[in-house]
Structure to design on (71 residues):
């Protein structure tokens, strides 16, 4: 969480490193069955990737896959 907060503050919410940190934290929480904490991070990652990269970019598709793994 600290890494994500630092990157959001220093680099901004849509920086590639921030998007990666958010995705990694969401995936970690999902793997620990902490779905309630993972879901908002993964949803935000999908939305940000769509905005930054577009709907067909590899990063966006991976983010959508990671979100789908919650269900």
């Amino acid at each position: 969480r600290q890494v994500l907060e630092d990157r959001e503050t220093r680099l901004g919410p849509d920086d590639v490193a921030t998007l990666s940190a958010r995705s990694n934290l969401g995936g970690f929480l999902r793997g620990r069955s902490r779905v309630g904490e993972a879901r908002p991070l993964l949803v935000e990652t999908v939305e940000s990737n769509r905005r930054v990269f577009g709907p067909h970019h590899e990063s966006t598709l991976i983010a959508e896959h990671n979100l789908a793994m919650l269900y």
Observations:
- The CA atoms of residues 17 and 51 lie 15 Å apart.
- The longest helix spans residues 35-53.
- The two ends are 23 Å apart (CA to CA).
